Amino acid sequence: MSAVLELERFSYAYPRRDPALREISLCVEPGEYVLIAGRSGSGKSTLLRALSGLVPHHFGGAAQGEGAVCGLDLREHRAAELAAVCGSVMQDPEAQTVMGGVRHEIAFPLENLGWTQAAIDEAVDEIAALLGIENLLARRTAELSGGELQRVALAAALAPRPRVLALDEPTAQLDPVAAAEFFDAVDIANDSGTAVVIAEHRLDRALARADRVLALDAGEIAFDGAPSAFLDWALADGRGAALVPAGARPYPRAPRPAVPASTRPVLEFTSVDYTHPGAECLALREVSIELHAGERVALMGENGSGKSTLLRLARGLVQPASGSVRAAGDVGLLLQNPNDYLIHERVADEAPAVALERFGLTSHAERDPRDLSGGERQRLALAIVMQSRPVVLLLDEPTRGMDRERKLDLLAQLDDIAAAGTAVVLATHDQALAAAFADRVITLAAGTVEVLDSPDEVDSPPRAAVEAVA
Amino acid sequence: MSPATATVTRALSFGYRPRGGPLQRARVTVATAWCVSLGLVVALYESPFVLAAVLVAVLAVAIKCRVAGEVAFAVAIASPLALLMALINPIASQQGLTVLADGLHLPLLGSFDVTREAVVYGLVLGFRAIVIFAIAALYVCTVDPDELLRVLRRYSVRSAITASLAVRLVPVLASDGARMAEARQCRPGEPPSSGTVVRATFARSIDRAGDAALALETRGYALAAPLRTRLPARTSADWLVAGGALAAVSFAVAGKVAGLASFVDYPLTYVASDTRDLLFSAALALAAAVPLIVSRGGGAQ
């Protein structure tokens, strides 16, 4: 059977930029499951955009070499023409939703391809049954959770029965449960013969499923081989050191400097209840928590368990229905998306020079914040929040879509902040990160503080997944 | 979230919900026709009795369609605008014979008189705005934009999808705006200027539009093949809603020809308020709304 994807010395550069892909040669067979690993900016997304026909046609720039998906030349065929043979799912579930109803969303690509109504109805029902989302067909896309929306996006990508599926960090914004459901759905498509090419930062889960791993470094293929060989290569501390899955090499735990013991908490929740406006059920119930200076706490729980609400209450963005929240000073809150903080056209206008220096951003002072990398934007948002020298710093899932290197950078910054006496609360789904960072883990379930334990007790599915590969 | 931000977010999060009401069950073309027919009545008549009757009809149908909360909210946010119109008209219009206050002076505007006719007409204009907001809210909450897109695609594929996508982007931008508002509250020091915030919001909307364009490309939008889908089968709701629309238009035209429910703004206000005018207003509302209200079915889906 002929290859579904063939690249021969394929190079691409975005307009007025250095090449993002350099002489990539690659062949993917039908039904193959290929995991693309690489640091941020290594060219993973660009490679997937090339498979979808988005580069060079949508983004412009220059492409060289040969490339074809199911025999369609990438330089001649646009994304729309490739949609029938290559389905795509991107990172942000909201951004790739086009229609208001789930059935219409899945039918949309088929309508564009000119299918008849009967064929569309049959294909939509078939793919919904295959992915187990029949119960969503009558729902509105605006009502779905991120995980549900991402599975609908997968169904829309699979509806034209493509031979290749290009997935660009599809679980970056999902909690572990939703991510596992998404991977299960991809497995179903793969089992039916669809080749899968997936870029991921959270390698642990995808590694156990992949037939092959492709590691990119500065737009070049640095490794191409079996998952077990990839683990050996990454653990050898060469170019792959930054790609070692957390399950194979846990994040280092920084030594804890002695912080003067304080009897007075810097943040105190006392029997706090909270109900979202218009809702009938309590979002948080009888929550009582104390935080002390310099303490490092991981806040964990599934999406919807109340983590973000707890942080908003602590910052005073919302008020409790009953009970009290007391802070001994300013409370800094870094929300999930650092871009929400960036409103000026110069980095220097976002935060004072001393704050920029503290977070290593002095050299970027004259740049537009939107031109910074993801990690730099995160540091800039931290610099903005830390200006007021808060007694407590709250971070709401700050490591979404981050590679290992950026997570280690963030851990080092948080260690410095905690060492200076600020209590730090990190809301995260990343068990390995929580284990490395926290002195204490607070677990929320259905709005209730369920467990207060040490980080050693946190389950670590990533470790199990990596052990399976090894 | 501040009350103003919450209000804007709620307004932008308006959208179609399939709640089983007669307008939701009817074809989008028929439901659109019903809303347009009431809009036509508002365009033809300035009589406060007719406007009030239309508003009652809209609210009654909104209750039947289970979107009364949304329509009431639209009326609430239209009220300040209506009040503004009522206040501005006596200043802007110097027509009318019954002077209530003469020789008033405002900087830049100079001296002016306030007439009773200008006050009444300002109130009528404001009331009209409220009724139009209510009809628009009912339309947005009961007409499925996806189905509307399928109908429009038969005539203009690209503009239909662009319009649908623009509607889809509204709640996405609303949630972006709400998150940015929260982030601004988390910034220490002086809050940023309005100009800075507007510029940042605009930049974000451009990013979102770029994301949407990517999604469209990968879903084959550029091919834009002619739609080969069929329209849903006609139901009893179609006939009832169409009947209501037809009745509203017929009553409105007949009333106009017969000179019922007339209204004169200047030089002296005249509002026809005979029994026959009041009966006409009530009959018009009943003719438009009753077929929908008596229709069977409904309930949340």
Summarize the structure.
The complex is a heterodimer of chains A (470) and B (301). In chain A, 31% of the residues lie in helices and 24% in strands. Chain A has 470 residues and is an alpha/beta fold.
Treating each run of at least 4 consecutive H or I residues as one helix, how many helices of chain B? 11
Global shape of chain A: globular
User: Distance between termini of chain A?
Assistant: 30 Å
Strand order of the largest sheet of chain A: 6-7-8-3-9-10
Query: Any low-confidence stretches of chain A, pLDDT <50, length ≥5?
Result: none
- Tell me the span between the first and last alpha carbons of chain B: 31 Å
Oligomer: heterodimer
**Which series of helices and strands of chain B comes N to C?**
HHHHHEEHHHHHEEH
Question: How many strands, what sense, and barrel or not for the largest sheet of chain B?
Answer: 2 strands, antiparallel
Task: Kindly name the structural category of chain B.
Answer: mainly alpha
Give the mean pLDDT of chain A. 87
CATH superfamily of the largest domain in chain A: P-loop containing nucleotide triphosphate hydrolases
Strand content of chain B: 5-15%
Which fold does the CATH topology of the largest domain in chain A refer to? Rossmann fold
Low-pLDDT ranges of chain B: none
Helix content of chain B: 55-70%
General description of the model:
The complex is a heterodimer of chains A (470) and B (301). Chain A is of the alpha/beta class. Chain A folds into 2 domains: 5-243, P-loop containing nucleotide triphosphate hydrolases (Rossmann fold, 3-Layer(aba) Sandwich), CATH 3.40.50; 267-330 and 389-469, Rossmann fold, CATH 3.40.50.300. Chain A is built from 15 helices and 19 strands. Chain A has helices at residues 44-52, 79-82, 102-112, 117-131, 146-158, 176-191, 203-207, 227-235, 307-315, 347-350, 353-358, 374-386, 404-419, 431-437, 461-469; strands spanning 5-13, 19-28, 33-38, 62-69, 72-73, 86-89, 164-168, 195-199, 212-217, 220-225, 267-274, 284-291, 296-300, 322-327, 331-334, 392-396, 423-427, 440-445, 448-453. In chain A, the strands form 4 sheets. Chain A has a 6-stranded mixed beta sheet, with helices on both faces. In chain A, helix 13 links the parallel strand 16 and strand 17 (423-427). Chain A is globular and about 70 Å long. The model of chain A has no long low-confidence stretch (mean pLDDT 87). Chain B has 301 residues and is mainly alpha-helical. Chain B has a domain at 3-154 and 236-293. Chain B has 11 helices and 4 strands; from the N terminus they run αααααββαααααββα. Chain B has helices spanning 3-12, 22-25, 28-44, 48-64, 68-92, 116-142, 145-153, 157-186, 194-218, 236-258, 275-293, and strands at 99-106, 110-115, 263-264, 270-271. Chain B has a two-stranded antiparallel ribbon with strand order 1-2. Chain B has a two-stranded antiparallel ribbon with strand order 3-4. In chain B, a hairpin with a 5-residue loop joins strand 3 (263-264) and strand 4 (270-271). In chain B, helix 5 runs antiparallel to helix 6, helix 7 (145-153) runs antiparallel to helix 8 and helix 10 packs antiparallel against helix 11. The longest helix of chain B has 30 residues, at 157-186. Chain B is flat, with a radius of gyration of 23 Å. The two termini of chain B are 31 Å apart. Classes of the chains: A alpha/beta (470), B mainly alpha (301). Chains A and B meet through helix 2, helix 3 and strand 15 of A and helix 7, helix 8 and helix 9 of B.
